[in-house]
Amino acid sequence: MLLEVIVALAILGVAGAAAVTMSAESARAVARARATDSETRAASALLDAVALWSRDDLDRHIGDRRQGPWRMRVERPLTTVYLVTLADSSGAATILQTALFRADTANVAP
After folding, report:
1. Long-range contacts of 76-80 (CB under 8 A, 24+ apart)
2. Does pLDDT of 109 surpass 70?
3. Three-state SS letters, the chain
4. Phi first, then psi: what are they for 52, rounded to 5°?
5. How far apart are CA 3 and CA 33, in angstroms?
6. What pLDDT was estimated at residue 107?
7. Is residue 68 helix, strand or coil?
8. For residue 84, how far is the Cα from the chain centroid?
Protein backbone atom coordinates (compact mmCIF):
# COMPACT_ATOMS: atom_id res chain seq x y z
CA MET A 1 0.00 0.00 0.00
CA LEU A 2 2.85 2.39 0.82
CA LEU A 3 4.44 1.64 -2.56
CA GLU A 4 1.18 2.52 -4.31
CA VAL A 5 1.01 5.85 -2.46
CA ILE A 6 4.61 6.66 -3.43
CA VAL A 7 3.95 5.80 -7.10
CA ALA A 8 0.75 7.89 -7.07
CA LEU A 9 2.62 10.87 -5.55
CA ALA A 10 5.39 10.51 -8.16
CA ILE A 11 2.80 10.50 -10.99
CA LEU A 12 1.06 13.49 -9.45
CA GLY A 13 4.40 15.33 -9.15
CA VAL A 14 5.29 14.69 -12.80
CA ALA A 15 1.83 15.80 -13.94
CA GLY A 16 2.04 18.93 -11.78
CA ALA A 17 5.49 19.82 -13.14
CA ALA A 18 4.20 19.37 -16.70
CA ALA A 19 1.22 21.62 -15.97
CA VAL A 20 3.45 24.35 -14.50
CA THR A 21 5.84 24.13 -17.48
CA MET A 22 2.95 24.32 -19.95
CA SER A 23 1.49 27.30 -18.11
CA ALA A 24 4.82 29.16 -18.13
CA GLU A 25 5.33 28.45 -21.85
CA SER A 26 1.82 29.70 -22.59
CA ALA A 27 2.55 32.94 -20.72
CA ARG A 28 5.76 33.41 -22.75
CA ALA A 29 3.87 32.77 -25.99
CA VAL A 30 1.28 35.41 -25.08
CA ALA A 31 4.06 37.89 -24.25
CA ARG A 32 5.76 37.21 -27.62
CA ALA A 33 2.44 37.65 -29.44
CA ARG A 34 1.84 40.98 -27.71
CA ALA A 35 5.35 42.19 -28.54
CA THR A 36 4.94 41.17 -32.18
CA ASP A 37 1.57 42.91 -32.36
CA SER A 38 3.04 46.08 -30.87
CA GLU A 39 5.96 46.03 -33.31
CA THR A 40 3.65 45.44 -36.27
CA ARG A 41 1.42 48.36 -35.23
CA ALA A 42 4.43 50.68 -34.93
CA ALA A 43 5.76 49.53 -38.32
CA SER A 44 2.32 50.09 -39.82
CA ALA A 45 2.26 53.64 -38.47
CA LEU A 46 5.62 54.30 -40.15
CA LEU A 47 4.37 52.87 -43.45
CA ASP A 48 1.28 55.08 -43.15
CA ALA A 49 3.60 58.09 -43.00
CA VAL A 50 5.76 56.81 -45.88
CA ALA A 51 2.61 56.36 -47.98
CA LEU A 52 2.16 60.13 -47.83
CA TRP A 53 5.63 60.82 -49.25
CA SER A 54 5.83 62.45 -52.65
CA ARG A 55 7.59 60.88 -55.60
CA ASP A 56 10.65 63.07 -54.91
CA ASP A 57 10.76 61.95 -51.27
CA LEU A 58 10.58 58.30 -52.30
CA ASP A 59 13.33 58.84 -54.90
CA ARG A 60 15.56 60.35 -52.19
CA HIS A 61 15.04 57.28 -50.01
CA ILE A 62 15.71 54.60 -52.64
CA GLY A 63 17.98 51.97 -51.17
CA ASP A 64 18.41 50.26 -47.83
CA ARG A 65 18.71 52.34 -44.66
CA ARG A 66 18.07 52.22 -40.94
CA GLN A 67 14.73 53.75 -39.99
CA GLY A 68 14.18 53.70 -36.25
CA PRO A 69 14.40 50.11 -35.00
CA TRP A 70 13.96 48.69 -38.53
CA ARG A 71 15.67 48.45 -41.88
CA MET A 72 13.66 50.20 -44.59
CA ARG A 73 14.20 49.36 -48.25
CA VAL A 74 12.68 51.53 -50.97
CA GLU A 75 12.84 50.16 -54.50
CA ARG A 76 11.40 51.40 -57.79
CA PRO A 77 10.84 48.37 -60.05
CA LEU A 78 8.76 50.47 -62.49
CA THR A 79 8.79 54.18 -63.17
CA THR A 80 5.48 54.61 -61.33
CA VAL A 81 5.70 51.90 -58.64
CA TYR A 82 7.70 51.94 -55.42
CA LEU A 83 8.11 48.96 -53.11
CA VAL A 84 8.68 49.81 -49.45
CA THR A 85 9.80 47.03 -47.11
CA LEU A 86 10.28 47.23 -43.36
CA ALA A 87 12.42 44.46 -41.90
CA ASP A 88 13.89 43.76 -38.48
CA SER A 89 17.15 45.52 -37.55
CA SER A 90 19.25 42.83 -39.21
CA GLY A 91 17.16 43.01 -42.38
CA ALA A 92 16.54 39.27 -42.29
CA ALA A 93 12.83 39.10 -41.39
CA THR A 94 10.30 41.22 -43.26
CA ILE A 95 7.76 42.85 -40.96
CA LEU A 96 5.63 44.74 -43.49
CA GLN A 97 5.79 45.53 -47.18
CA THR A 98 3.70 47.75 -49.43
CA ALA A 99 3.63 49.00 -53.00
CA LEU A 100 2.98 52.66 -53.75
CA PHE A 101 1.93 54.22 -57.05
CA ARG A 102 3.21 57.66 -57.96
CA ALA A 103 2.34 59.10 -61.36
CA ASP A 104 5.29 60.20 -63.51
CA THR A 105 4.51 63.90 -63.91
CA ALA A 106 7.78 64.64 -65.77
CA ASN A 107 6.40 63.10 -68.97
CA VAL A 108 2.99 64.76 -68.86
CA ALA A 109 2.35 67.43 -71.49
CA PRO A 110 1.19 70.80 -70.12
Report:
1. 79/104, 80/104
2. no
3. CHHHHHHHHHHHHHHHHHHHHHHHHHHHHHHHHHHHHHHHHHHHHHHHHHCCCCHHHHHHCCEEEEECCEEEEEEEEECCEEEEEEECCCCCCEEEEEEEECCCHHHCCC
4. -90, -10
5. 45
6. 64
7. coil
8. 14
pLDDT in tens, 52-101: 999 999 999 999 999 889 999 999 999 999 999 999 888 788 999 999 99
AA identity, residue 79: T
Judge whether residue 47 has pLDDT over 90: yes
In whole angstroms, how far apart are CA 45 and each of 24, 26, 39, 50? 32, 29, 10, 9
